[in-house]
Amino acid sequence: MAHELTAEELKIWRAALSIADMLRHRVSSDVKVVSDLSHAEHSVLVHIKESGGALGQQRLADAMFWSKSRLSHQLTRMQAKGLVDRTAVANRMVQVSITPLGLRAIDVIDAAHATSVRKHLFHVATADELTTLLRLAAGLRSEPDMVRQAPH
To answer: Cα angle vertex 59, ends 77, 44, to 5°?
Structure first.
């Protein structure tokens, strides 16, 4: 097998990266109108909220594909803002929980976020494209040799 991507493979790879970058940028820009929460802060809060309001720090890092160090720095900033709390639990584990202020911050963003995602993704992509996107994501998640740790 060739060591370099073919022109077509490179075109597809760049398109995949571009889609993710464009969606993240457009949605973040729309959300900035109603909140000063960063994309990273919003992502952390949503992961914790969707996990019932608390999550182990390592599990959170794995779910976000972030390094332990990157998440720790992000959580330190968020804790200083009162958005999350960290608590030491058994076996040197750290539990991250969303605070009432963090929940309010997400509540402020929810409508703008949903409107923006619909505008930039669901109103642009066809039903078949969305189905294909779901299948692709499922296939990537089920790769047996997938490493769930972010690059160092």
So the answer is: 35
